[in-house]
Each structure stands twice: as C-alpha cells, then as structure tokens.
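Input (Probable tRNA-dihydrouridine synthase):
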Amino acid sequence: MTVPPVASSAASSAVPSAVASAASPTVSSLRIGPHTVQPPVVLAPMAGITNAPFRTLCREFSGGKGLFVSEMITTRALVERNEKTMQLIHFDESEKPRSIQLYGVDPATVGKAVRMIAEEGLADHIDLNFGCPVPKVTRKGGGSALPYKRNLLRAILREAVSGAGELPVTMKMRKGIDDDHITFLDAGRIAVEEGVTAIALHGRTAAQHYGGTADWDAIARLKEHVPEIPVLGNGDIWSAGDAVRMVRETGCDGVVVGRGCLGRPWLFSDLVAAFEGRDGDVARPALREVADVMVRHATLLGEWIGDEARGVIDFRKHVAWYLKGFAVGSEMRKRLAITSSLAELRAGLDELDLDQPWPVGADGPRGRTSGNNRVVLPDGWLRDPYDCAGVGEDAELDTSGG
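Output:
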C-alpha cells in the first residue's frame, strides 16, 4: 500500500506521550459479522468529511487496519439512485470491508435501500444513523430523535436486518434527546432483539450536540446492559491515549473516532500503535510534513471530484484543522482558506516557517463544540414514545452527505 509521504517521517518524529504510560487495552480486535476489525478502531461517519479521499488518507496512515465508514447516505436518495449519492457510495478497491452508513425514517424505504446494497454488492457492512443531532435531520424525526419512538426504531431495524441477508447491520446512536428523554438502554435492548450486530454510543444527548464532556459512564452502562453484542464508545477521543483509557474505563469493545481526526489523519497510526502495545510510537509531524499531507488531501479530492479547482475548494474547510496550534498569521490562514488551485495552495504553504515542530496545544478538541441546544422535533413527537403516526416516506431526506 502506498503511504503518504508524511507517514514515515511523522512516525520517525514520534515522542512519548500520555499513551506511553497507559496500559495496553485487553481488546485487540472486534468482530462485526464475518469481519474482524483489528485493532478495534472505527472512523466515524461525518458529513462532508469521510468521503473516499479522507478515508484513503486515514486508511494509509493506519496501514489498512481498522474500519472506515462512509459519510451519511440517505435511503431515499440511494433508492432513487441520486447521482451525488451514487458517487458517495463509491469505494476504492483497497477498502475492505466497504462500510456504508444509512439514514432513514421510513422502514419500507430503509428496507429497499438495504436490499439494494445487499443484492447489488455495494458494500460489506451497513451502519444505521440514529445519532445525528442537526435540526434538518431531527425535525423529520430522524437521527438522534428517532430512538425515542421505540416501535419505529424496532420496525426500521427489523426491515434492515431482514433485507441485509448475510451483511452485518450495526447502529450508531446518542444517549437520548435530552436529559429528560434518555433512550439508549431501551434502544440497545431493541437492537439486540432485532439482530443488530454491534452498537456505537456517542456519550452525549442530541441537545448537547458536541458541547460539554462526553458521558463515558453511559457507554459502560450500555455494555453491561447488552453483553450479547459488541459496544463501541464514541466521544472525546482526541488521542490514542484517550482511546485506550475509554476501553479500560468502560469495558467497551472498541472506539469510534470522529472530530479527533479532523486535520489529523495520522491519528490512526497512533491508534494502531497504542492498541498493538507500541505505546511510544506517536506521530508529531512538523509543519512541513503537515503541509505535504494537506496538498495530498486536496489532490485526492480533486481526483475524486474530477476537477482540481472544486477539489481545492472542498478542501478549504480542512485548513484550520490542519494548522491548529502552528504559528500561522490570521491573514495567511484566510488566504489559504480561499485558494482555488493546488499550485496556489502549495505556494501559500511554502511561505510558512515549515520547520516548526508539532506545537504544544495542537491536540485536544477540534471541530464543532456547541452545546445546550433546543432539539428541533416534529410536532407532538414527545407525546407518546410508541406512537408512530405521521411518520412516513415524506419524512425521508432526499440528499446524502449530511
């Protein structure tokens, strides 16, 4: 496998970190149906982020180890063979297993989408999204709003599992809608009863969005509640040390990493090293190495989209994440965030002090951090946790990727 230029040099600049003093976890692999995920590390689906180019980068840094999930695919768009959606479900030949995350609210549409994937061989694993907290999803009764409707959740899972055939079906969810409407234990039990293969729990409610601190105790409680299947923990994993600590403290069977790898695809090399007991092997790339990865990321996006300019434009949102902590002036940051060609991006990066070492403070939270939001729900959604009236095909989103 071809490894990004930064990979070998970043690994050579490894220095001891917090993970070096942490005992290696007892979990070394994860079973999802017929697939062994070793080490038990999963890239979280993120809208507009975990497309094929980003998955390629993360997978290369991991040496092909782990599981890398597509960004969210809406079942209605898939069934209708929306052009953008069909591009989003394209996997590189090196991606094994191929993992798709589906969003849906209508059981019949979810069933059609899953059967399409199974019958046409479009993926090897299907994950169902019951964790997205954004208003355009929850106002339709989807994402993190849906598990409140227990019977609807059961109907969707039943259709998905029955339609998947030999393909394993997993689900990702949150604790609940808010502190007054906690659903994760009921949802976990329903998942087991309907044949779901594994569950990932983000230790926050929908109302928290990405604010505050993830509740790892909830992950431990879910593991105790559904010992029959693997439970994966998600939330506040910013380093390999955090992943090791989550497994050790909660007893979960693996970790799902989201915002922690934004602008840091080499985090997956750290995670592999930590779970394999190579605790001191931590990537601390200098800015020169980071710049090389940035250009490669933008290049891959252009090749995937089929247009260099559009690829660089799509890359703009990643600039601040990659440069976090480095001494780069605000004007240069703005300039790099409006580039429209690879030459322009490379030229701007070459003006920086590329000999800067990995900065103190570059680790830690990145991406969205807002919290304490009012969750937008369909009218009357909270009146009855079992009544599914009014939820149907018209609630399905018709676009994928978020």
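The chain has two domains: 27-279, 287-350.
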